[in-house]
Design goal:
Elements (H helix, E strand, L loop, with lengths): L11 E5 L7 H14 L5 E5 L1 H4 L6 H18 L6 E5 L5 H10 L4 H5 L2 H7 L8 H15 L5 E3 L5 H17 L10 E3 L34 H10 L18 H14 L3 H8 L4 H27 L2 H30 L5
Parallel strand pairs: 1-2, 2-3, 4-5
Helix pairs in contact: 3-12, 4-7, 7-8, 9-12, 10-11, 10-12
The structure holds tryptophanyl-5'AMP.
Length: about 350
């Protein structure tokens, strides 16, 4: 008798889109966690180019961006000996399982996805089917490896819930209890939602037209210090508890960034800085940010200078990823009843 809950090994999977330079939000919400997890878990990290084409992309820029994100993975400290690092389109299982999951996911589930509503804007009829089905492909990414844990920022929470629904539905529809795990998001902690430096109510994003809204991993020390100095805050001093920061979004964001970079709680930051104004706090935050980010930027330049080495990492990663996914896909085909499986 098969188990009703998944009893297989733990595995970590996460992905990053090759749609532009990475910023502090990507680093604190995702990359920093990836680097820690590779020490303790079996990890797979993917540059998701199939997701990128849900919005128009220039073919040349897409392949360059794919290498750039891989370089950022390596510069941030991912080690291809410890984790599998590869590109989504190089492993066919993602597309195949996404199709299969399209037949398990329900229209109503996808219609509730806030990211689709944001990206499609007012003219939903003109959005691509791919943009609508985006979260189904994300479920396929995770489950093609039977991954159990997914480190992401807060903005991916709803997509992760959908992945769990899809896994559960597949297991039930095909009478295969416990076949797919219900993946757990790893989101908690400061840094899960880094906001724009210009507007503390909006998340820090690659697509914000203002470069002053974000700190890029490639920014030099002066640029980082200038952006933090210009970050929108308020004239009040920092309070001694987080509740008192309600409604002060810009201020709360800087406290959260400090906490995430220092590896302490928001409250611990306030314990140190209560009563002080931003004139005193911002230079300290700038120093902390420069110390964390500029070494990555410098290493990024070194890694980017050797594209052949990046390609080797990706080729090896694709082989290792396929070797994990293929036996799982063989079982999936057999469970569904495809000919020859
Ligand atoms: P993407 O490429 O938009 O972002 C990559 C990672 O960075 C996190 N992130 C943030 N975290 C904190 N604050 C922010 N302001 C911020 N902005 C971005 C994201 O949460 C993400 O973890 N759909 C995903 C990619 C994906 C994926 C997957 C993730 C595809 N398949 C499977 C996990 C598992 C995305 O667009 O991430």
């Amino acid at each position: 008798m098969s188990a009703h809950v998944y009893t297989g090994p733990e595995r970590v999977f996460s992905g990053v889109q090759p749609t532009g330079a990475l910023h502090l939000g990507n680093y604190l919400g995702a990359l920093k966690k990836f680097v820690a997890l590779q020490e303790t878990h079996d990890c797979i990290f993917c540059v998701v180019d199939l997701h990128a084409i849900t919005m128009p992309q220039d073919p040349k820029t897409l392949s360059q961006n794919t290498r750039k994100i891989t370089a950022a993975f390596l510069a941030a400290g991912l080690d291809p000996k410890k984790a599998v690092i590869f590109v989504q389109s190089a492993v066919r299982a993602h597309s195949e399982l996404a199709w299969i999951f399209n037949c398990s996911a329900r229209m109503g589930w996808l219609e509730r996805m806030t990211q689709f509503k944001d990206k499609a804007g007012k003219d939903k009829e003109r959005a691509s089917v791919g943009l609508f089905a985006y979260p189904v492909l994300q479920a396929a990414d995770i489950l093609a490896y039977k991954a159990t844990h997914v480190p992401v920022g807060e903005d991916q929470k709803q997509h992760l819930e959908l992945s769990r629904d899809i896994a559960e539905r597949f297991n039930r529809d095909y009478d295969a209890p416990g076949f797919f795990p219900l993946p757990e998001p790893l989101i908690k902690g400061p840094g899960a939602r880094v906001m724009s430096l210009k507007d503390g109510t909006k998340k820090m994003s690659k697509s914000d037209p203002s470069d002053l809204s974000r700190i890029n991993l490639e920014d030099d020390a002066d640029t980082i210090a200038r952006k933090i100095k210009k970050a929108r805050t308020d004239p009040e001093p920092l309070p001694d508890n987080m509740d008192a920061l309600k409604g002060r979004d810009g201020a709360a964001n800087l406290v959260g960034i400090y906490a995430a970079l220092a590896g302490i709680s928001d409250q611990a930051v306030l314990d140190e800085y209560a009563g002080q104004g931003f004139g005193a706090f911002k230079p300290k935050l700038a120093e902390l940010t420069v110390n964390a980010i500029t070494p990555i930027g410098q290493d990024l330049a070194r890694v980017n200078a050797d594209p052949a080495q990046i390609d080797l990492v990706l080729k090896d990663g694709a082989m290792r990823a396929s070797a994990i996914a293929e036996p799982i896909m063989e079982e999936v085909r057999r469970i569904i009843g495809f000919w020859g499986a």
